[in-house]
Amino acid sequence: MALTFPYYVCFLLLLVHPFLASAQTSGNISLGASLSAKNDNSSWLSPSGDFAFGFRQVVQNGFLLAIWFNKIPEQTIVWSANRNSLVPSGSTVQLTSKGLLILNDKAGRQIWTAISLGTGVTYAAMLDTGNFVLASNGSVNLWESFDEPTDTILPTQIMNQGTELIANYLETNYSNGRFKFMLQGDGNLILYTVSYPFTTSNAAYWSTQSSIPSGYQVVYNQTGYIYLIARNGTVLNPVLSNPVSAQDFYQRATIDYDGILRQYVHLKPGASSSTKWPVGWNILSFIPGNICLRIEGATGSGACGYNSYCSIGNDQRPSCQCPEGYSFVDPNDVRQGCKQDFVSQSCDLSSPETDSFSFVDMPNTDWPLSDYEYFGSSSEDWCRQACLGDCYCDVAIFRDGNCWKKKMPLSNGRMDPSTGGKALIKVRTDNSTLPAATSGPKRKDRSTLILTGSVLLGFSIVLNVLSMAVASVFFSRSKKEKEDKIQPCQSMPDMNLKSFTYEELKKATGDFQEELGSGAFGTVYKGAYTHENGKTIAVKRLDKMVAEGEQEFKTEVKVIGRTNHKNLVQLVGFCNEGQHRLLVYEYMSNGSLATFLFGDSVPNWYRRTQIAFAIARGLLYLHEECSSQIIHCDIKPQNILLDESLTPKISDFGLAKLLKTDQTRTTTALRGTKGYVAPEWFKNLPVTAKIDVYSFGILLLELICRRRNFDLEVKEQSQIVLADYAYDCYKEGKSHVLVEDEEEAVEDMKKVERFLMVAIWCIQEEPSLRPAMKKVVQMLEGAVHVPIPPDPASFIGSTD
């Protein structure tokens, strides 16, 4: 697992420029200090020089802000800030005068920032433990990299409940991969496959739950023991236990890209050992013992990709391979799985092709959970014939008189002596790359066909020339007439949405009779689509066909059409006909959250907490989990709709900005809703996803307190602005006042206070202090600790 970096050039250290000399520091890093991404290994060192913090080039013109072992040739990375968003040469990291650690790309766009526990950071330091910290004058760590690990933990590091390690995608691709190791909120320590490209848990393949009670922390001590402890400090279970000398060895535990958690040691430069150790990193121990057999998720491909199989080699590492007749989709990324190298069997009953296929035997091989038919008390020959005569059958498994038919994609593939039986892989024997029905002409007919084809081809060329001439004349005379006519409905590229005609939607809405609501750009009408048994729909007609309205139409179709989440409203289709611009949504029978929350029948505390969770998850999807980051820009109760089961769904993406994967912010005119708009919009600053975090914070306060953010009918003037009033109550230790007339909430004050603290973090005036939506979700769910929030307006007027 040793990593090499061709961009590391030792002789540059001999050409020490004054700036480089200042960048290679080993003491405390002062406010205002910065580093730039370039090929000079400039970094901030720990006192011993064992660890370095700075930029590492991992691909051409792609840099990670990382921490690495500095004194060994491999310079192994143990932490990174921007694993999913490499930055180009010229990017910078700065410890600002406010104590904020901010990573910007070369254009000045903020890529990442360290969210500290509060104000008061006076310096940063790279410690000899491998921990990078932001600290106060009293040497209190207000932020540390140990609290936000990537794929590695180090001696003295602790994993709290909710902490997770996510494997690299590949050995030299540091983005989020397919596996993770986490200590859950219930105290269970688990290895999971993830629903890639998301990091949500999929199938567990190693767990401590069956043998121990609830765990509180995972501790990695300096002697090499990694163990789970209870809240009272009792050791519940060793995870990886191999004592080594911290004086002589570097240590780390990493969940590798293949899904195995391994504990490594590396002899320190100049150290000696009574045992002869191979050069580089050496594996002390690992879990699980055989990952090929451990992963059997109902969803997901398993330890290897679809249609491949996993086996354990002599080095105890899993190897992914393709069956005969199959090859890797991407040889450089074998976990993408395998594809057939032949044409599948035809299902044409008149030509069953049974003579064109045979079987390759693979002993001790299986793809569990891919069955679609099972037969007991059968023979191997019967099993073969049953699969051969079934065009759906790609593989048959025969074991102990039992026959299973399987079809692609095959998942959880493994080859191991404990599996027994054999897999019968159906392959084409004629090496055909075309279906049998398209067989070529017989040899004796080919000369005739060539002569006939030549004559027809010549005649076709003459016709094509004449046709082009006629078409040119016709087009020049009718071009203007076509421009004046209404064009038919067009389908959107890359969109799987229905294209409606204007007449269809006019009929569906009864000539736009029943109005559901209206906004700045259009009106929404209730309708029924007759082609789907009268399914109720909501049709939004854009009334202002100026440039701004047309742009909203294009934006909304593109944005919503690419999303798929239970907490986002679903776009059914659209109409783009002449001057008509209409959007067709799923119908939300319970209207908006504004009506529900501020009406006569206020939802109870439990229901409001579930609504908050759902909205937060929807925003997390938009910001981090869909293919392109989406900023909504107008989160408010009116834009949260409720379905028949009161499930909230984020709607109205008319102001959303669709960003490419290498962008994190954009600019826009001030178009949000007063009271929910983040203050940076008023300063004409670039818009980031933190705009939505601010709006969510205001909405969360409204959910907690069951009132609008701005209310002139309150008893006292100090209560008019909810954000100010709520913070004053929290600061004075009177959070209960906000829910004092609601018994259910009063009895759940711990959660009330947690939600209130999260909301205050979200509405910080300084965008970099606001947590990302992933952190918001974790804090709301109680998976991570919520630090004490500062006064939201504490940074107003300050400058770097």
Automatic annotation (TrEMBL):
One of its GO terms (molecular function) is ATP binding. It is found in: Membrane. Residues 510-788 form the Protein kinase domain. The keyword Disulfide bond applies. It comes from the Eukaryota. One of its GO terms (cellular component) is membrane. Residues 1-23 form the signal peptide. The chain crosses the membrane at residues 449-475. This is Receptor-like serine/threonine-protein kinase.
